[in-house]
């Protein structure tokens, strides 16, 4: 093992053994793999690959900090390779939770303040897609940002809060009661003023940024689909 690998290994151990330092996480699920997104978000986050996604990391020459799951999807050659690279393994066999949910719990138990989830939308498994969106609500915490991200949009759960988003004028935005909320906005093409949102009853679909800054206030619970742009204020 050369000096660079030794230093990387020691850095990973420092993060994992001192959880107060481990505040920003990236979880890569076993959905359609977007290598460019993974590389972008991996730069400044502790990276957890679900066991199926570990095969993609191997194929693209990427290395996660930790591999999580029941290890039923990881190829044996991949497992052996990452063991030699001193990657940490978090093996769990509780079938009451999906591998993604178990990884979320791991992050929250290790003082996460910001969690981005990639490769968790689509892939021909609508049940997983709906479940993954539901996890945003199940593990919502005002002190922890949890966001599902794909190549052009993000999904996050809001509860009794105000956020300001930055994005290109004309970008699409959707807001859905999850199950119910009252929404007020500033900066959208079709503004909402104490607008009632209710799942399967009324929502805001195909709204758009009228200005580069959009402020959304939600009273109740809602699911926000927005451009993959920064949240400036919460």
Protein architecture, described:
This protein is of the alpha/beta class. The chain has two domains: 1-151, Thiamin pyrophosphokinase, catalytic domain (Rossmann fold); 152-234, Sandwich (Jelly Rolls), CATH 2.60.120.320. 28% of the residues lie in helices and 36% in strands. The protein has helices at 3-17, 35-42, 51-60, 76-84, 99-109, 126-138; strands at residues 24-28, 46-50, 66-69, 88-91, 114-118, 145-149, 153-166, 172-186, 195-198, 203-208, 213-227, 231-233. Strands 1, 2, 3, 4, 5, 6, 7, 8, 9, 10, 11 and 12 form a twelve-stranded mixed sheet that branches. The chain is elongated and about 55 Å long. Residues 1-8 have low confidence and may be disordered.
Kindly list the characteristics that best describe this protein.
234 residues; alpha/beta; Rossmann fold; Jelly Rolls; twelve-stranded mixed sheet; 6 helices; thiamine binding; ATP-binding; Thiamine diphosphokinase; thiamine diphosphokinase activity
């Amino acid at each position: 093992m050369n000096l660079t690998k030794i230093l990387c290994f020691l850095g990973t151990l420092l993060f994992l053994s001192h959880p107060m330092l481990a505040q920003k996480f990236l979880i890569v699920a076993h959905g359609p793999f977007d290598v460019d997104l993974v590389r972008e978000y991996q730069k400044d986050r502790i990276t957890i690959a679900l066991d199926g996604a570990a095969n993609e990391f191997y194929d693209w020459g990427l290395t996660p900090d930790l591999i999580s799951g029941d290890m039923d999807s990881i190829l044996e050659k991949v497992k052996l390779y990452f063991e030699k690279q001193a990657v940490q393994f978090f093996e769990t066999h509780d079938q009451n939770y999906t591998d993604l949910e178990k990884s979320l719990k791991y992050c929250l138990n290790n003082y996460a303040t910001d969690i981005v989830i990639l490769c968790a939308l689509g892939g021909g498994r609508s049940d997983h897609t709906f479940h993954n969106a539901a996890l945003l609500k199940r593990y919502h915490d005002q002190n922890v940002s949890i966001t599902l991200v794909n190549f052009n949009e993000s999904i996050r759960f809001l509860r009794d809060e105000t956020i300001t988003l930055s994005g290109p004028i004309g970008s699409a935005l959707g807001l859905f009661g999850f199950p119910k909320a009252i929404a007020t906005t500033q900066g959208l093409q079709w503004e909402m003023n104490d607008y009632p949102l209710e799942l399967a009853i009324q929502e805001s679909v195909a709204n758009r940024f009228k200005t580069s800054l959009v402020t959304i206030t939600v009273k109740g619970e809602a699911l926000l689909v927005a451009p993959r742009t920064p949240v400036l204020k919460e």
